[in-house]
Design goal:
Helix content: 55-70%
CATH architecture: Orthogonal Bundle
Largest sheet: none
Number of strands: 0
Strand content: under 5%
CATH class: Mainly Alpha
Structural class: mainly alpha
Shape: globular
Number of domains: 1
Length: about 180
């Protein structure tokens, strides 16, 4: 995972201050999602839904590679790339801690934290941080279980990986990555 300090700082402010998307934005997003995807999308915090809609609107509105319009799977991938964050249910400070720990240790730290037998608030917090660190794989698993397009599933899992590790078409992956980075 890339740390991306500027992107992370913008996301920190957005998560702390965003009221979430309005009804018109949510309705627009719903046009791109099936019922199972819509249910997963609605589990996200308001700030995450607003961010995903901003990413999706960018990819839907701009011509992609070779001037082509974004296919449905690309817009759906933009809307659903962060869906695994819903399983962590962390506030802005917890997410910040999880981001740094994930950057330092990767998914293995998330699995380690999730497997600790600690009880009480410390155990709950550690498990939540572990889930947040692993949100790409958790989101991909939820999308796969719901029958999403395999490219949408792949992007949820791969969107923080290096380009060389993507299984989605690289040109569309670049469009998605750049929109995600720009949306803050």
């Amino acid at each position: 995972m890339r740390l991306q300090p500027v992107h992370r700082a913008r996301r920190f402010v957005a998560v702390a201050t965003s009221p979430g998307p309005g009804p018109a934005d949510r309705a627009w997003a719903g046009e791109w999602l099936d019922d199972a995807e819509g249910a997963l999308f609605d589990r996200l915090r308001g700030a995450d839904r607003a961010h995903s809609i901003a990413v999706a609107r960018a990819v839907a509105g701009d011509p992609g590679p070779d001037g082509a319009r974004a296919p449905r799977w690309v817009v759906s991938a933009a809307l659903l790339h962060d869906v695994g964050k819903a399983d962590a249910d962390l506030g802005v400070l917890g997410r910040s801690v999880a981001t740094v720990l994930g950057w330092l240790g990767g998914p293995s730290v998330g699995r380690w934290l999730g497997a600790r037998p600690w009880r009480g608030p410390v155990g709950r917090a550690c498990r939540a941080v572990g889930r947040y660190i692993r949100y790409p794989e958790l989101g991909a698993a939820a999308l796969a279980a719901g029958g999403s397009d395999p490219r949408v599933v792949a992007w949820a899992r791969e969107h923080h990986r290096p380009e060389a590790d993507w299984t989605v078409p690289v040109a569309w992956g670049r469009v998605l990555r750049d929109a995600d980075d720009a949306a803050g």
